[in-house]
Every structure is written in structure tokens, then in C-alpha cells.
Inverse folding.
């Protein structure tokens, strides 16, 4: 039973799982049990509770009357769900289902509801939407879905250790990008893909969102964050689909993660959650800021995303 690995390299984790003939989640659960000196069942039960909270977000998040505290957002998940369940979606029930679930969790977050930061509040809709949609569309067991969250968590820990997860530090690539990478790995595992396929899916998901700035309008995790959660889960399914087809990333996942860090380090401060650049400084963005806080008030650079330790 191999537990001799850490979270400095995703390739090392995938190689260990491949060699053991097990999914990444099995190795992570075993390693965490040893490291935290807790039995695997208690760790599984804790993750199962997280999954329950994720699932419980969908209903209230799809309330057509749901509105954020600022009044800027709400109701989009209900619209997307109506299209998905009517059969009128352009992309079918799997992708449209993922879109409305991502919007639901994100809108519930904006309305001060109870969510799981995965890995941050600003990117909270992507991973739940991916896994819950896989369960609904593919008839998967809850146990398989809960276990896939351990695979996603391993990806998040590698990214956190080698780059960052906070928009204030690395832009939205660090938040929605990391969440998309985590979701892509979970999807691959749930679809029966190999650990190496999961690794390639992570690389593809991150590459496709590399350089995305963090520019919250009025300094709030609403615009454009909520729709970026929908885009992020779509990107996760794209990355997983490619990897499951045997398509490999030319750049290894660990190198993509390091590239993401370098991009974040060189990103101007105005594009890292300060609300001083990008969409936040458009005429409409400024008008919405004044609508919420009043003319002449300064935008807050910290939107409470949960991605940093400030």
C-alpha cells in the first residue's frame, strides 16, 4: 500500500497510482489517513458531508427569486436549468446541466448561502457542478463521487504548494483555473480514465485558462465571477473529454502549474482582485460600483473569496 509520496508533483502522484493499479483517490485517502492519523472511514465521511453541502446548494441556488446582497446577480441558474430540463439546450443535458449547477452554487454564494470553497468561494461552483452532473447523467454512485473529490483535492494541494489559489495573488487563473483543473481530474476518474489521463486533463484545463485576470466589478465575487464558474466547468469537461480520448498535453501538468505561477507573479496588481482594472473599470463596471456603494466611494480590493490568508 503505497503512501510514500507528497503533494509537490502531480506526475509523481499519478505515477504512483498508475503503478499501484488504483485511482488517485485511493492513494490520497490512504496517504491522508496516515498523515493525519485518522482512519479512512472518518476522512471519507467528512468528505461525504462536503459533498452533501454541495448537493444542497443546487435547489436554493436555482430559486428564480434568489438575489445577491448587492442586488447585482441572481436568477441565472433558474433560467439555465429551465432550458436544460426542457430539452432545448444547444449542448445537451450534460453540459447544460453542469452550467446551471455551476451558476446555482456561485449565485448561492453571492447571496450569502452555505457553500464549500472548492478551492475558493469565488470558484465554488465548478467542482460541485462537474461531479454532481456526472452522477446525474451517468448514474454513478455517491461513493464514487465522494472519492473523486479526494483526487480533486490532491490536484488542489499540488497547485497550492507550487503556485497559488488566490485571485489576489495569481488572478482568476489561480481560482477558476485551479477549480477547473481539479474538476477535470475528478471527471476523468469518474469516467474510468487512468491516473495519467487525469494528469493530462489537469494540464489541458489549466493551459486553456492561463492568464485569466481577476477583475471583480465593485470588488464583489459576482461579476464576472459567476459566469466564469460556468465557463470553468465547461472547460473541465473539454479537458476531460480530450484526455479520455488519449490526447496528451505536450506540456506536463507540473510545468503548466509553474507557468501559471510565473504568469501570476508578473500580472499587474490592477488585474489581481483589486477592482482597478479589466471589467471593473469599464463604464458599466463603474456605474454598477456606484449603484451598490454610492458615487465617489472607493472599491474594495478584497472581495472575501477565501483564496488567501489575508
Amino acid at each position: 500500500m503505497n503512501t510514500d509520496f507528497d503533494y509537490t508533483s502531480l506526475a509523481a502522484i499519478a505515477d504512483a497510482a498508475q503503478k499501484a493499479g488504483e485511482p488517485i483517490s485511493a492513494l490520497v485517502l490512504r496517504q491522508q489517513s496516515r498523515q493525519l492519523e485518522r482512519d479512512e472511514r472518518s476522512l471519507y465521511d467528512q468528505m461525504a458531508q462536503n459533498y452533501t453541502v454541495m448537493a444542497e446548494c443546487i435547489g436554493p441556488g436555482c430559486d428564480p427569486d434568489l438575489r445577491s446582497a448587492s442586488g447585482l446577480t441572481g436568477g441565472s441558474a433558474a433560467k439555465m436549468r429551465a432550458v436544460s430540463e426542457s430539452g432545448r439546450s444547444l449542448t445537451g443535458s450534460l453540459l447544460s446541466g453542469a452550467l446551471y449547477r455551476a451558476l446555482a452554487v456561485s449565485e448561492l454564494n453571492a447571496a450569502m448561502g452555505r457553500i464549500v470553497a472548492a478551492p475558493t468561494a469565488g470558484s465554488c461552483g465548478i467542482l460541485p457542478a462537474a461531479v454532481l452532473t456526472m452522477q446525474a447523467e451517468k448514474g454513478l454512485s455517491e461513493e464514487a463521487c465522494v472519492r473523486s473529490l479526494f483526487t480533486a483535492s490532491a490536484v488542489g494541494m499540488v497547485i497550492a504548494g507550487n503556485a497559488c489559489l488566490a485571485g489576489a495573488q495569481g488572478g482568476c487563473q489561480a481560482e477558476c483555473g485551479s477549480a477547473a483543473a481539479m474538476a477535470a481530474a475528478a471527471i476523468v476518474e469518474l469516467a474510468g480514465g487512468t491516473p495519467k489521463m487525469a494528469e493530462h486533463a489537469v494540464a489541458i484545463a489549466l493551459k486553456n485558462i492561463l492568464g485569466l485576470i481577476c477583475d471583480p466589478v465593485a470588488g464583489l465575487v459576482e461579476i464576472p465571477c459567476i459566469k466564469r464558474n460556468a465557463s470553468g466547468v465547461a472547460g473541465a469537461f473539454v479537458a476531460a473529454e480530450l484526455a479520455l480520448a488519449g490526447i496528451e498535453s505536450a506540456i506536463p501538468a507540473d510545468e503548466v502549474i509553474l507557468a501559471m505561477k510565473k504568469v501570476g507573479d508578473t500580472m499587474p496588481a490592477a488585474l489581481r482582485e483589486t477592482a482597478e482594472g479589466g471589467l471593473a473599470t469599464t463604464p458599466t463596471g463603474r456605474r454598477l460600483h456606484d449603484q451598490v456603494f454610492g458615487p465617489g466611494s472607493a472599491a474594495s480590493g478584497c472581495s472575501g473569496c477565501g483564496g488567501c490568508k489575508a
The chain has 14 helices and no strands.
